[in-house]
Amino acid sequence: MLFIINPNDLGNTDIKGFRLIEAKEVSLTIFLEDMLQGKVADKVMLMTSDVEQTFQSFKSHFEYIEAAGGLVLNSNKEVLWMKRLGVWDLPKGKVEIGEDYPIAAVREVEEETGISNPVIKRELISTYHTYPFKGKQVLKRTYWYLMNYSGEDDLIPQTEEGIEEVLWSSESSLFIENTYQNIIDVYQSKFS
């Protein structure tokens, strides 16, 4: 987990468990190589007086993709979970050229899970994560929405996207144990 932060904001930030690194002390390229090879602490705050410039520099080292997705609740307040590559996840996917984020989020939820017409209640958060794809490193920003669903559609995993299982559950702690940190952040944001 990496945060890029202005040192003036440290007083308003929970830094417990984070390694603090000053951006000027480190070459961003070397830092990124170490980070992608797992040589950097799990939780890092990269401190800089120019957060936007540092982020743009960081972003330039990746293929950048925007995505949208949803945390979907049914009428029983159960969460719609899906398992992809053995890990529990929430439905999300790439935003198409010219597509609005909310429309992309609904489309991706429908495609990946088989339900139709989930209704967006509100925007949640956006998250970033990196991953290797076809020899490149990708930085994906995902815009998340809280959605309600009141239909009766059968759940159908989009297997061509590697989705193995889709289900409704109120036992979210079981899924949180086998998911990604950014999905935990999305799940927790529904309470704020």
Describe this structure in words.
Helix content is 23%, strand content 38%. It has 192 residues and is α/β, with parallel strands linked by helices. Strand 2 (19-22), helix 1 and strand 3 form a beta-alpha-beta unit. The protein is globular. The protein starts with a strand and ends with a helix. The mean pLDDT is 89. It has helices spanning 28-36, 51-59, 101-113, 172-176, 181-189, and strands at 2-5, 19-22, 44-47, 63-74, 79-84, 87-89, 92-94, 119-133, 136-149, 163-169. The strands form 3 sheets. The chain has a 4-stranded mixed β-sheet with strand order 7-4-9-8. The protein has a 3-stranded parallel β-sheet with strand order 1-3-2, with helices on one face. The protein folds into 2 domains: 2-59, no CATH class; 63-189, Nucleoside Triphosphate Pyrophosphohydrolase (Alpha-Beta Complex), CATH 3.90.79.
Poorly predicted residue ranges: none
What is the helix/strand order? Answer: EEHEHEEEEHEEEHH
Number of DSSP-assigned strands: 10
- CATH superfamily name of the largest domain? Nucleoside Triphosphate Pyrophosphohydrolase
What fraction of residues sit in β-strands? 35-45%
Helix content: 10-25%
Q: Span between N and C termini?
A: 21 Å
Q: Supply the CATH architecture of the largest domain.
A: Alpha-Beta Complex
Q: How many discrete domains?
A: 2
Q: Output mean pLDDT.
A: 89
Q: Would you tell me the structural class of the helices and strands?
A: alpha/beta
Neighbour order of strands in the largest sheet: 7-4-9-8
Regarding CATH, which class of the largest domain?
A: Alpha Beta
Helix-strand layout with pairing:
Elements: E1 2-5, E2 19-22, H1 28-36, E3 44-47, H2 51-59, E4 63-74, E5 79-84, E6 87-89, E7 92-94, H3 101-113, E8 119-133, E9 136-149, E10 163-169, H4 172-176, H5 181-189
Parallel strand pairs: 1-3, 2-3, 4-9
Antiparallel strand pairs: 4-7, 5-6, 5-10, 8-9
